[in-house]
Amino acid sequence: MPFTVAGMDVMVVGAGRSGRAAAELLVARGARVTLADRAASIDGVGASETAGVALALGAHDPRRFERADLVVLSPGVPADQPAVQAARTAGVPVIGELELASRWISGRLIAITGTKGKSTTTTLAARMIAQGGLTALAGGNLGTALSSQVASSQPATFHVVEASSFQLETTDTFHPWIAVLLNLTADHLDRHASFDAYARAKARIFANQTADDWSVVNADDPAAVSLAASSRARRFDFALESTLEAGITIDGDQIVRRDGARTVPLLPVAAVRLPGRHQLGDVLAAAAVGCLVGVPAPALRRAVETFRGLEHVLEHVAEIGGVAFVNDSKATNVDAARRSIESFDGDVVVIMGGRYKGGRFEDLRAPVAARVRAVVAIGEAQPLIEAALGDIALVERAASMRDAVDRALTFARPGGVVLLAPACASFDQFQDYAARGRAFKAEVERRLGSAGMTAAGRRPGGTD
Questions:
Q1: Alpha-carbon distance 333 to 116, whole Å?
Q2: More reliable by pLDDT, 103 or 449
Q3: Is residue 33 within 8 Å of 12, Cβ to Cβ?
């Protein structure tokens, strides 16, 4: 029976981009919608009100949640909020925005998750499909809510969706034709009760797949391989290091597809313009998606050659006095920061810190000892960073991003790198990781301006 909300009272929780898109979609489908947010005022909700969405701002009233026919959560809303729990106790169904939108999508869903690399892989996979002459829409956690794509969804559309653990944990029937798991390390432990809970949320990407679907898994990552073992879908993996019988890997200077004894070259490794070996892995994952969709090798190569990466992902901002400034503000967990530091041979001054969200800073000791000249610590995590790294590296605290960039410059040497790789969330000092990255770039621009120079930073498309 088709899913319908016509005539229902629906409470949408969280008035961010996803919540507003869900609310407007629900109104278009005939529901009476209330958009609830604990903030006293929200910028940008005027369009939702015009579309017929009622607002409930400030403290949540559990009674309103209990009277609803359906509750839809934005990704940023914890599922254990008291008002949400009250709705569940009252028997009200609670789902997430991604789950809601997926029930009305006409085209095929390609979902991509993992601890690191989701945005790059999602963007590049969509570009590959489009280069192959097909219709592809990138969205989800990437910045465009899937709810906003429902109206334009056609049977021939490929929806390439970045799926976070927050989105996946509130899915029920979500069913991607291709599900990609890039890697799995500790993250978001400030929200998930444990690493196991985080992993269970990620595993939801495979829950409704069948033998007609595909799972694409990083064969170099034992935790990812283990998590995907229960999937009923066919496997088509990718790997930088492991030997594959079927999947995408490296053979000499070529990215190749292997099917048993057959090896087919797809494109040269030299066509990849992204820094960091981990981003080469993201290219392999995207190529696996492209191959399963049926994109020919020349189209894969065109997509890769013209892709310079995303803002805030190992983004080269400028060079001052022979020192390169690199913005990797999206490295919001310890493993991502490790990969970021390991993208450089050495002589790195790393700006690190923010709001701690789990993981072990001690896991950075080896790359810091091998490659880092100094650590400039920012935000709430400063004492944790000092405790973990202070005996093997110079760790200096900074009170602000301006202070951090200034201090980093005092340690940097020509030929070296000042790298923003926070290993933490941004919410102690900034609205989000993008605001943190922009603040870093603004301070670099300030330094350039004082030197009478112009930044040569690249700002490619993509906001997440």
A1: 9
A2: 103
A3: yes
